[in-house]
Design a protein that fits this description.
Elements lengths: L8 E4 L4 E4 L3 H4 L2 H9 L7 E3 L6 E7 L7 E7 L14 H5 L6 H14 L5 E5 L5 E2 L6 E2 L3 E5 L2 E7 L6 H14 L2 E6 L16 H7 L5 E4 L2 H10 L3 E12 L4 E12 L4 E3 L2 E3 L3 H27 L4 H11 L5 H37 L4 H11 L13 H10 L14 H11 L7 H10 L3 H5 L2 H7 L13 H10 L11 H5 L1
């Protein structure tokens, strides 16, 4: 039976954003996904949209996906949620299973090889625990050796393992000052498919705890080691390639035949090539190009939310790391979206100003604009809104519409009268009160004697408004960004 992954949306608690899980492998690069799986600082970053419990990122081999794996989120064991999957995890399947024949043979082969090499001394083979300085934590490596007096531990990893186990071992040996080298037994053992196109997730987890590296040791490397007098390994390295013509960085696993002396051990990580340093150099080179491209093309996207913007940004800037550029991206999105909002508000003002001058003959222009804007929920515009009411609302908000309907003639105060003096406006009295509350000219309006006189009249709040959606339009139009820079007198608009 096909396994169902039942969390469609997660909340990024750091940024207070909701994200579709299906967009993760498109939005985020492989290195970022690995960070979510293996870096402790991300442990409680994502939560289930439904129950708000912390969730963790999992992976399932899938050749059709961008990175060779389908990434999805699961609840922790004790979480209660209707979205929770009851399927057994890979870690549970393997719990308590004894090490296989290949695992044991690899340890023995490595031990036999090291005994024949100069400067190597075997301390223990899978027998003794190594304790932390405070004796509270312990680990039992597959093989503990010393090279020129320096402690080196080897872990042979053939099967799936949870990222937590990988990270815990990595941190333990780092604190001990022991170099940790993860080994796979054969090249065939590292792939999830017969075509050898995709590497197992456990090796990805290990690699990205070691700057994109893990290593292979088998009978061929053992023979070469004895012949050369130096430990020979195959380094599997996740590498990036800069493609300036397509503004992309390509990634792939590459194989290098190396000896132990070519390895670097730094900050608890063992590596032949530093993927993150090399990749950063490539991305720094593409960064200026990517930013320039986004700034030039963002006006063409016409996106209405953050998730749509991220997808558009990744299309233009394929190597984009969202977390790294988040602050800049947020600012760019805000500027673009608000500038387009201002354009819409300017267009509405233009249409209402012409209507105020030309009357009903210009109503068709309003209907056309109204039909277009009604398709976008965030503007609060719907079809068949009362244009006369909209006109009075804009006057109360302090906008000049004609040479006669402007703040100099106190049109913002006189507009209030309509909602108390004329039957067609009376059903909108609550709208009028809200417009006054949102108006930057509120104090001036409430200081007007004629306005106060009408506000002290009995309000007909029980009247059913003809179109409640105008409330949404009012709140949107009065919100930031405000049209402070387009409060033009009628003559300027005409000019």
């Amino acid at each position: 039976m096909e396994k169902r992954h039942q969390i469609p949306i997660v909340v990024d608690t750091w940024e207070e954003e909701s994200l579709w899980v299906d967009s993760f492998d498109f939005i985020y690069e492989q290195a970022e996904l690995q960070g979510f799986r293996t870096n402790k600082k991300f442990t409680n970053r994502f939560a289930c949209q439904n129950c708000k419990n912390p969730v963790f990122l999992k992976a399932l081999a899938d050749e059709s996906r961008l990175h060779g794996h389908h990434y999805y989120f699961s609840h922790h064991k004790d979480a209660v949620c209707p979205w929770k999957s009851d399927s057994t995890t890979v870690a549970e399947i393997y719990a308590g299973v004894e090490e296989g024949r290949l695992h044991l043979e690899t340890k023995r082969l490595l031990a036999h090889t090291l005994t024949q090499l100069e400067h190597w001394q075997i301390i223990d083979i899978d027998k003794k625990f190594i304790f932390s300085a405070d004796k509270l934590n312990r680990a039992k490596p597959d093989l503990h050796a010393q090279y020129k007096g320096k402690d080196v531990v080897f872990e042979v990893q053939l099967r799936s393992e949870s990222p937590k186990v990988v990270m815990t071992r990595q941190e333990f040996y780092k604190n001990k000052g022991f170099q940790l080298i993860w080994l796979s037994a054969t090249k065939d053992n590292i792939f999830v498919d017969e075509d050898k196109g995709f590497v197992k997730q456990v090796h990805k987890d290990i690699a990205f705890c070691n700057r994109g590296n893990w290593f292979i040791f088998d009978a061929i490397q053992a023979e070469k080691s004895v012949k050369k007098g130096q430990l020979q390994l195959i380094a599997m390295v996740w590498e990036s390639y800069l493609k300036l013509d397509s503004k992309r960085i390509k990634y792939d696993w590459n194989e290098y035949k190396i000896d132990y002396a070519q390895l670097t051990y730094e900050d608890g990580e063992t590596f032949y090539k530093d993927f993150f340093a090399i990749n950063k150099a490539h991305k720094d080179r593409l960064r200026d190009l990517g930013r320039k491209t986004l700034q030039e093309n963002i006006r063409e996207y016409r996106v209405h939310n953050w998730n749509e913007f991220l997808k558009a940004a990744k299309s233009e800037w394929p190597s984009l790391e969202v977390d790294h550029e988040r602050k800049w991206l947020k600012a760019l999105f805000k500027i673009d979206y608000e500038s387009r909002e201002l354009e819409v508000k300017r267009k509405i003002l233009e249409v209402v100003r012409h209507y105020s001058k030309q009357g009903e003959q210009f109503y068709q222009r309003w209907s056309e604009l109204e039909n277009k804007l009604a398709k976008v929920d965030s503007f609060g515009v719907s079809r068949n809104m009362n244009l006369q009411v909209v006109e009075k609302v804009l006057l109360i908000l302090g906008y000049d519409l004609t040479s006669h309907l402007n703040t100099k003639n106190k049109s913002h105060c006189r507009a209030v009268h309509n909602f108390f003096d004329y039957g067609s406006f009376i059903p909108y009295q609550s709208l009028c009160l809200k417009a006054i509350e949102l108006s930057p000219l509120k104090d001036e309006i409430l200081a007007d004697e004629n306005v106060l006189k009408r506000l002290h009249m009995p309000l007909k709040m029980d009247c059913e408004e003809e179109n409640k959606s105008i409330h949404g339009f009012l709140e949107w139009f009065a919100s930031e960004p405000r049209l402070k820079d387009v409060e033009l007198v009628y003559e300027q608009v005409e000019a």
